Backbone:
């Protein structure tokens, strides 16, 4: 079982809608999480970090962390076609030689 | 700020040839990583270096070797390339979140 599981995609939403991306993790030690965005043919880029329980907002993006449920999510409000990408979540911490990344959820925002 | 610089960006090798992928970071990070990503797949860890002078195997180390030359540089070597090593290779460094290089697209024919 992978350390991090992401909701299977692809996910398609109309422009202006809210996109919800989810991630569950198995390591109870994980305290912080990062969300990355990867455009097709490009490298992943860090877009959000969340270090404590609750919500963290940054513009149209909100990251939510629930440590009790071992669940982290990313909400994208007012989705734009430019948000179309694969989104990866990863915990902070040692990885014992394993990739800490989920397989990603591919989001398509349709105009 | 250059961040993480990888070279080359593209490479075609014949089966059995060798090559070294270069990676350098200017953020003074201790940890550096090599990942590969196959089409439609997730990132798989090849090797990592938690600090200068140390290297450890990741999930898919077979067919690869690495060198942490100094704190800035972490190279990946393919001694005898195989078609199964056709992939996109990403170098990354990390303080908290990862910073990735732009990737090397390697094709082995």
Residues:
């Amino acid at each position: 079982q992978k350390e991090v599981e992401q909701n299977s995609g692809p996910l398609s939403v109309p422009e202006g809608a809210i996109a919800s991306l989810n991630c569950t993790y198995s390591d109870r030690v994980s305290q912080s999480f990062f969300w990355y965005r990867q455009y097709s043919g490009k490298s992943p880029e860090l877009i959000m970090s969340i270090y404590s329980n609750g919500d963290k907002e940054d513009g149209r993006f909100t990251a939510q962390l629930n440590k009790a449920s071992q669940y982290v999510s990313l909400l994208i409000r007012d989705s734009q076609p430019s948000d179309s990408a694969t989104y990866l979540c990863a915990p902070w911490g040692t990885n014992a030689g394993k990739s800490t990344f989920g397989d990603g959820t591919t989001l398509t925002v349709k105009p | 700020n250059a961040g993480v610089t990888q070279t080359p960006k593209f490479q075609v090798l014949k089966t059995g040839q060798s090559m070294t992928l270069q990676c350098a970071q200017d953020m003074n990070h201790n940890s550096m990583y090599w990942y590969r990503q196959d089409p439609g797949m997730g990132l798989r860890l090849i090797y990592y270096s938690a600090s200068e002078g140390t290297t450890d195997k990741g999930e898919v180390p077979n067919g690869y070797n690495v060198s942490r030359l100094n704190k800035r540089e972490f190279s990946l070597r393919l001694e005898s390339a195989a078609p199964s090593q056709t992939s996109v290779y990403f170098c990354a460094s990390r303080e908290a979140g990862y910073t990735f290089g732009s990737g090397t697209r390697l094709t082995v024919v």
